[in-house]
Amino acid sequence: MNRTAAVSIRLEGVRKQYDDGTVAVRELSLELPAGELTVLVGPSGCGKSTILRMINRLIEPSAGRMWLGDDEITAVDPIGLRRRIGYVIQNVGLFPHQTVRDNVATVPKLLGWPKQRVAERTAELLDLVGLDPARYAARYPHELSGGQRQRVGVARALAADPVVLLMDEPFSAVDPIVRGRLQDEFLRLQQTVRKTIVFVTHDVDEAVRLGDRIVVLSEGGRLEQFAPPAVLLSRPANDFVAEFVGSDRGIKLLAVTPIPREGLRPLPDGHVSAAQAPSVPLGGSLRDALAALLEGDTGWVAVHDGGTALGILTPEDVYSVLRR
Ligand SMILES: Nc1ncnc2c1ncn2[C@@H]1O[C@H](COP(=O)(O)OP(=O)(O)OP(=O)(O)O)[C@@H](O)[C@H]1O
Asked: Which residues are in coiled coils (predicted)?
């Protein structure tokens, strides 16, 4: 599936002023690492969509330079460029009179792939996004739920094995429960494909849940902070970021902070296995640990790796890990 190696995206002094004088992006420099999911987040009108659309050249920047790996974006042929970039937007924009199969096959067909390869690829992608090809490939978009349509949109964007995926509020049109499920599936999908993804949302929770890194922007495409979720939540760069991420950032931080491997306290005497006490797997989050702590009455939670108990965490430990 992951045939094409991911590449980084670099912006240097990028500015966008629209014809009516609106400055959507003032001067932005950023390097988005290859194979990572970077979320652009910020209030409405801060230039998020403009930035995405400059990367795939639906919009030309007024100044500055951008690179996709070693290729300068503004110097290459825009059509060829767009074939290397998957683009998913809100409400997807599927072709209504084409089946799911034909929608997903759009770009491979354009690229002149042999029929057999197109068919295999389409089935593989539908599987990957959790839609059984036997059941869904022949349906039309109006015969799908909103969440299923979004999945087809993701499958279509991945079809030609793009080096980069740009996603503009792809999950915002579906209800919160479906949204949560799509986010989970999408994270699993990214484990498999490891694309360089730029994901736009105005929802901080979504940003924290999905992002390897988060770019917080304010009006005029001004960069306020660029950091992994845990850093953003524990050390917001300024008042704008602190306010934007919200007063419940401590709770959000619990969910993105992994249980530490080092510094666990030894199991108390008599507790030789994690089965005898509330326990969480190594690889879980501090929120999981806290939830297990609150359920049990031991005052501590065992951390296990497979069947082996590694040690315990107390509420004080959880607190001190958060404060690190
Ligand atoms: N074609 C255009 N002409 C003039 N101004 C525009 C144009 N497109 C966008 N803008 C303005 O540029 C600014 C940035 O818009 P953009 O759509 O990039 O913001 P956004 O952060 O994606 O917003 P939202 O979260 O509401 O989708 C806004 O002030 C918007 O009104």
From this structure: none
